[in-house]
Amino acid sequence: MSRPSLERFLPDTEATDALGRALAATQPPQAVVYLHGDLGAGKSTLARAWLRALGVGGPIRSPTYTLVERYPIPGGEAVHLDLYRIGGAGELEFLGLDEAGAALWLVEWPERGAGALPAVDLQVELAVRGAGRTLRLLGMSAAGQEWVKRMENQDDLRPLAE
Ligand SMILES: Nc1ncnc2c1ncn2[C@@H]1O[C@H](COP(=O)(O)OP(=O)(O)OP(=O)(O)O)[C@@H](O)[C@H]1O
Ligand SMILES: [Mg+2]
Q: What is the whole-number distance in angstroms between the Cα of residue 21 and the centre of ligand 2?
């Protein structure tokens, strides 16, 4: 069975923000999301818009140096990770993250925490294309696959322009 996937073009930062709002509106009660993409692809921009849409007030900092930032959200806690600077997956233990406790995981550079992260529901792939970004969503679990189908009905996201 092929994984449900969705591709879109995000012409500007506002489109990435709209994606964050759409993902917040459609997310299941518990979700693990891996954010893939090179430096500057828009992962933190997306996470910030998503957390804002979930009602997080105050500053939303990129966890570039702290590795993790945590926020109360409806239904529990969101953890936003950026593993770019992690020494190895073993260091994740020291962050004291409770796998079962978090309602939402947003993980930048998940490949650097391989083996020490909870199983992924939704994979988000961002890539630079011209002045904008391309988006690919992949449903990786049963819940993630249902989620991608819900995202297909979010019409404020533009189709991927070839
Ligand atoms: N769809 C888009 N089109 C054009 N620019 C965008 C788009 N989405 C985000 N950006 C811009 O890209 C820049 C880098 O974004 P961001 O910091 O979110 O990247 P990142 O993937 O988190 O990088 P890093 O791996 O360094 O953490 C920001 O200036 C942001 O405004
Ligand atoms: Mg970032």
A: 17
